[in-house]
Design goal:
This protein is of the alpha+beta class. 48% of the residues lie in helices and 9% in strands. It contains 17 helices and 12 strands. A hairpin with a 6-residue loop joins strand 1 (31-33) and strand 2 (40-42). Helix 6 (116-128) packs antiparallel against helix 8, helix 6 (116-128) packs parallel to helix 17 (361-378) and helix 14 packs across helix 17 (361-378). The radius of gyration is 21 Å and the shape is globular. Residues 70-76 have low confidence and may be disordered.
Length: 412
């Protein structure tokens, strides 16, 4: 195999179950440029970390000369203005500061931690719903419904509307699958467009209602936000809500599912977590390094010439930052291919870094900690039915499509 075929092999579905040997090969060429007009691919930890903080790297889709399609970009085909993850300063900074006022310290310091009890109740309800099952699909029966329910509670969607809300999200998320889009089913694509429109109209109505009668939920805070950065327009509120919904859903599904798969492959770790639920903090941080839900960032553009490892990346070039390769860089982590939750140095790239570091990271961490500790405690004798499991086709947001697990029962 030649370097010229390496990026194609990484994105080839045939390697989705285990791309890590390809990332090892990729790191041998720290800045890989395959072909004229293609992306410059960066794979070492320190280079990625530096570029994530470099103002010469743009996230604004308007600067992309030949946009790549990934699930997050497709998700934002809603007719709404781009969310702040697709913008550069100063507009990015303004919108993110307003959103941060509603999401955490210093203005809402207890927003996420106060959800701990509610998250635990949602997790318990989903596991209780498994009944006396002897086989569980962790994706369909747990990891998939969990985050969308959490986002409903965070935004303040009325309980009676949650089934409708989840129905729209189910269709929209199904429309993100690259295979579905390739097949071009006109009827299904119409259903996706209709679901997006219905969801947008519903959220717009909810925003207007919250502006008249604000509550304690995140959507109310966004709708009536004020301060030195002003307030968001209705369209900006909707873009931020959709970002939380789609990006927060897909990444959390993959974090929980990849986490459970990794624990089942490391039974000693699973047993220890069952007896030490507080260890979930370490487990989740190591999972974010070892099996990050976002494998690489393809939506970046150089807005000036940049030299990386002696290679000049010209202005206007596309650049891919392969987070998953950086997370296994032996120049940064000792024995990087070993899953070790007791690892002392866990400054991973699982949530990115810099001004575009994952906005929802505090919530995603808490969701995964509660979900994995409870699954470890309550699934009796869990074992993989198929290894590797079937994977989603998307190379950016990588995770199993199903994770079928045999169990001896569900513990109380």
């Amino acid at each position: 195999m030649t370097d010229a075929s390496l990026v194609r092999r990484i994105t080839d579905f045939a390697h989705r179950a285990n791309p890590y040997p390809l990332y090892t090969e990729l790191r041998r060429t720290p800045v890989l440029y395959e072909e004229e007009g293609g992306p410059y691919v960066v794979s070492s930890y320190w280079d990625i970390e530096s570029l994530l903080h470099d103002p010469r790297i743009s996230s604004d889709a308007a600067n992309l000369t030949a946009p790549d399609e990934d699930e997050l970009s497709v998700a934002e085909e809603t007719g709404l203005p781009p969310s702040f993850i697709r913008l550069d300063p100063p507009e990015h900074d303004r919108l993110r500061r307003i959103a941060n006022r509603s999401f955490g310290p210093p203005h809402r310091p207890h927003r996420i931690d106060a959800m701990r009890g509610e998250l635990s109740a949602i997790v318990s309800g989903l596991i209780d719903g498994l009944g006396d099952a002897r086989q569980v699909d962790v994706v369909d029966q747990f990891a998939y419904p969990f985050p969308v329910t959490v986002i409903c509670r965070l935004l303040g969607v009325p309980r009676e509307d949650e089934p409708r809300f989840r129905g729209w999200v189910d269709v929209i998320v199904a429309g993100l699958d690259p295979e579905t889009r390739r097949e071009g089913d006109a009827g299904f694509q119409h259903s996706v467009r209709e679901a997006r429109m219905q969801l947008g109209m519903y959220l717009a109505g909810l925003v207007e209602q919250r502006r008249r009668e604000p509550g304690e939920d995140l959507l109310s805070d966004l709708a009536v936000s004020g301060g030195p950065d002003g307030s968001m327009s209705v369209m900006e509120v909707l873009s931020t809500a959709v970002l939380l919904l789609i990006a927060g859903h897909e990444t959390t599904v993959n974090l929980v599912t990849n986490g459970m798969l990794t624990l089942l492959r490391h039974p000693d770790t699973l047993r220890r977590l069952r007896g030490e639920p507080a260890w979930a903090v370490n487990v989740v941080e190591e999972l974010l390094r070892y099996e990050p839900p976002v494998q690489f960032l393809p939506q970046r553009t150089c807005i000036a010439d940049i030299e990386v490892h002696g290679v000049t990346i010209p202005k206007g070039s596309r650049i891919w930052l392969v987070l998953a390769a950086g997370n296994r860089d032996p120049e940064r982590f000792r024995d990087p291919d070993r899953f070790d939750p007791d690892r002392e140095d866990l400054q991973h790239l699982g949530f990115g870094s810099g001004i575009h570091s994952c906005f929802g990271a505090p919530l995603a961490r808490l969701e995964a900690q509660i979900a994995l500790s409870e699954l470890a405690r309550r699934l009796d004798g869990p074992r993989l039915i198929e290894d590797p499991p079937p994977y989603r086709r998307n190379a950016v947001l990588r995770g199993p499509r199903h994770l079928n697990v045999a169990v001896d029962g569900i513990l109380p």
